[in-house]
Structure formats: C-alpha cells, structure tokens
Amino acid sequence: MSKYEVQETLKIEPMKVLIYGVEGIGKTTFASKFPDPIFIDTEGSTGFINARKLPNPTSWTMLLDELEDIKSDPRGKTLIIDTLDWAESLAKKYLMDKNNWSAIDASNYGTRYVALSDEIGKLLNKLTEIRDVGINVVLTAHAETKKHELPDEMGQYDKYTLKLERRDASLAKEWADMILFFNYKTTIITDSKSDSKKATGGQRVMYTTHKPAWDAKNRLGLPDELPIDFEAIRELFEAKTGMSTTQIKSESNTQTQQVPLPDEPPVIEDEPEPEEAKPAPEFAEEIPSSIPQSLADLMTVNHVTTDEIMQVIYVGGFMPQGTPLENVPEELWGHLASNWDKVLNMLETQIRK
C-alpha cells in the first residue's frame, strides 16, 4: 500500500497579488475593487475611496500585530496593504530603533540589509498565512526607474522596478501569484519638418507579462496589456479564486432591501428582553503628546497606561527611578516600540503581578 497519496495540483484558492506603478495612476482605487476589501493604509492614501480599513499602523510592530489579528479573526475577503514601500519604511525604523543604527546601509558586510529582508520575509509569511485562511492578499507599491546592466558589456537601459531595497523587491516578486504593472502608455511622434519629437497618448494601462522594461506576471492567461479596470480581470480572477464579486454585491443589496409592512402587524406577546452583551471596556487614558504616536498606539490597543510604561523604564534600568516623562529621550521611546513583546512580558511578570 502506498504511503503517499497522489494529489491534484490545480487549486481554487485566494490569490496573492502585487500591483505597482507610477504615482497617482489608480493603484488604490483598482485594489478597492477586489471582493470585500479591508485596507491597511501605511501612507494615508485611502481617504478618497469608500472602503473599510484597520487603524493606520504607526510602527512595524503594530502592522504585524494587525496581520495577526486578521489571521486569528478573519474579516473580509481581501486584505490590502497600501503601500508595501511605506511598510518597508516602518521596518527600517523598527530595526534602527531596536539596534541603535543610524541607517539601513551596507555596513558590516550588508548585515543590515539582510536584517531588513528578514523582517519583510516575516511580513510575507504572515500574509501567506492569511491567504491560507481564505482571504486574498493584495499589495500595492510605487515604481521607480533604475539602470539595468546587460551582460557581456552590451550596455544598459532604464527599467521600472519596485520602490524597495533590492532583496525586499525580489522576495515580494517571488511571493506574488500575479504582478501587475500600471503605467501611462505614450507614443513618440517625430515631426518630419522640424525633426522634433512629441509625446502623445497618456492612456492608463496595466501590463501583465514580463518585459525588459518592467516586471509583471500572471497565471490566469491574461492578455499582455489591459486597461486599468477591474472588469478586465474579473472573470479569470473569479474562476481562479472561486469568489464572485458580483455575488458579494448582490448579497449586500439584498440585505439592504426594505420589506413592506403588512396592513395589520401581528400581535406579539411581551417577552423578557435578552441581556445585552457588555462591551469590552474602552481604554480612556489620554496618552501624553510627548510619547511618539508609534508607541502611543501600541499602548492604547494593549491598554498600557503612562504610569506602567514609566515603570517599564525604571524597572528595566533604562533610566533612574523618578525620572520625569519629559526627560525620556526620543530614541528610548523608539526602543520600547521596537521591543514591544518584551515590554508586555515585563508588565505581566514584574509590574502587574
């Protein structure tokens, strides 16, 4: 009897999508057309669309915590991080605060870049886990042009790439099932009389397959070039994921339809009213403005008071007992935010017991 069962390779499952392009071309709006989207807005770009989102993460720790929250309590059918390059900036600040680095650069034989790619790898692994619980994942990112060297000294050319560090860009491209590149399509016309050149067109298009000038890929059999319109990929996307965006909308509409009342409403006997579930207590303390927002947000969501965070500073030996809050240096606040798991552990084991 065989030990291993032969399985089918074709799967109907949510997708991991990466959308990148020039600024202002409509990446966020396009992403909002995926089924039942929930945004994590790292750059504050969702204010002009009608969608749901989690609180804007102000630290790398908070971003990863939000992903863990979505995985443990799945909501929506698509999670969107808008944008990945701004998320990378949170990771950079996290590492700089945690290790007292002045920058993420090639110091120490590139170990800082390796540490950064490790953090981005953690992010992508968490996103895969979210996909595995039945949620599409969409990442948006900005594009930038870089010189690309051809082998054997054949020259170089400009290429649109993800606005990420090289290692991080490679990880993101390997992670994605589909990469869509958004750009304006222009045509250069040469005047036969003056020999001057003029750019015309400016049509917004998305590219779905790899070319020397950009990165793209898809496993849906999409045409090489499409208009930036979700309808252009809807049918093939629904076939791959088994999710019908049309069905989601119709269900929503059905729920909002008003049912006409009968002429004479039936008499309903009085019944004892069910006890209302008590809401979780709100954290009402106002965090002082001298505490950076990145730490204040973590304190609020974890119900950590100002007195408790000061006790962490004293008990942890960071500053002498009785040091005023206003004398705490900026870099120490950043260190606490970057080591938030250790802060919570100290609170539970040494301060709150």
Task: Write a structural description.
Strand 7 (178-190) and strand 8 (197-207) form a beta hairpin. Strands 1, 2, 3, 4, 5, 6, 7, 8 and 9 form a 9-stranded mixed beta sheet that branches. This protein is an alpha/beta fold. It folds into 2 domains: 16-246, 3-Layer(aba) Sandwich (Rossmann fold); 293-351, no CATH class. It has helices at 27-31, 60-72, 84-99, 107-132, 166-175, 231-241, 245-256, 293-301, 306-315, 330-338, 340-351, and strands at residues 16-21, 37-41, 52-53, 78-82, 136-149, 156-162, 178-190, 197-207, 225-227.
Q: So what's the CATH class of the largest domain?
A: Alpha Beta
Order of helices and strands: EHEEHEHHEEHEEEHHHHHH
Beta fraction:
15-25%
- The portion of residues assigned to helices is 25-40%
What is the mean pLDDT? Answer: 87
Overall structural domain count: 2
Q: What is the radius of gyration computed over CA atoms, rounded to a whole number of angstroms?
A: 26 Å
- Unreliable runs: 247-262, 274-280
Give the N-terminus to C-terminus distance in angstroms. Answer: 57 Å
**Biggest sheet overview:** 9 strands, mixed
- What spatial form do the alpha-carbon principal axes imply? globular
Total helical elements? 11
CATH topology category name of the largest domain = Rossmann fold
Second rung of CATH, namely the architecture of the largest domain: 3-Layer(aba) Sandwich
E-strand count = 9
Structural class designation: alpha/beta
Biased composition (Polar residues): 243-259
Pfam families: AAA_24
Protein name: ATP-binding protein
Region (Disordered): 243-284
